Amino acid sequence: MKYTCSIAMGPIDELLDIARTAEEVGFDSIALPDSLFYMEKAAADYPYTADGSRMWDENTPWVDPLIAAAAMGAVTSTLRFYTNVMKLGSRNPLLLARQVGSVANLTNNRFGFGVGIGWAPEEFEWCGQPYERRGARVDEMIEVIRLVLGGGMVEFHGKFYDFDRLQMSPAPSQPVPFYVGGHTEPALRRAARVGDGWTSAMMTAEQLAKTIRRLNDLRVEYGRGDRPFEFQAVCIDRFGVDGHRELAQIGVTDNIVIPWVLDGLGFDAPLGKKRDSLKRFADTYIHSGWQERS
């Protein structure tokens, strides 16, 4: 099982230090969350908390995940980065293809593109994109971005996007993996149909096990059951070596954690404490050899 450190809701001026430390102690990846802005009044409930409330306020720090990946990639050499997840519905696919390709090249193919639709109507409408038919439009966006990132002269004529022959150079020298987020049946089908992996929001181990089984069934249904596939998970009720062993057994391939939050220090812990938590976590789980003994 791989280990990824999430930088959710952390101060921007700490990100480079976090990346360097995570690489030094042995983490595989950094997960980069996405939020465009905080609207004072939200038209929809946040879908990943029990009461629909947001876990942040107007002063919580966020950074554009693609810019963060490029910056953190410049101070590391082996650490990977992926968006977790970028909300496609409020953005333009050709502009995103340019940005994703740039990050992939600047990080020497150490970037994965985690994608979702987005939950807030305001993010769509205030960025000039329709909220209606967002799922079908995001499906087409994924197709467009993948096509352009593949390199060469391409054209596309779809229901939502239409362009004649164009080329963006340089194309990444390796395919950018796409990780699809979401817990609904349409999201799981999208992940099984077009994704190189699926990424969760906060879930229990029981929910993860059920979802992973469903995804595996869907992958077989779409004729993709034998392809490599990542299951990136944020688990809220399994901790310690035994808990991590259970997650591996149900099929989690990438465990997304925030070590200083797990240590009870909160999102705004001092940077030195965060470094200590990263090292302590790595010693306990990454270097302890528990996976070899399982």
TrEMBL record:
<dbReference type="InterPro" id="IPR011251">
    <property type="entry name" value="Luciferase-like_dom"/>
</dbReference>
<dbReference type="InterPro" id="IPR036661">
    <property type="entry name" value="Luciferase-like_sf"/>
</dbReference>
<feature type="domain" description="Luciferase-like">
    <location>
        <begin position="10"/>
        <end position="231"/>
    </location>
</feature>
<dbReference type="InterPro" id="IPR019921">
    <property type="entry name" value="Lucif-like_OxRdtase_Rv2161c"/>
</dbReference>
<protein>
    <submittedName>
        <fullName>LLM class F420-dependent oxidoreductase</fullName>
    </submittedName>
</protein>
<dbReference type="GO" id="GO:0008726">
    <property type="term" value="F:alkanesulfonate monooxygenase activity"/>
</dbReference>
<dbReference type="InterPro" id="IPR050172">
    <property type="entry name" value="SsuD_RutA_monooxygenase"/>
</dbReference>
<dbReference type="GO" id="GO:0046306">
    <property type="term" value="P:alkanesulfonate catabolic process"/>
</dbReference>
<dbReference type="Pfam" id="PF00296">
    <property type="entry name" value="Bac_luciferase"/>
</dbReference>
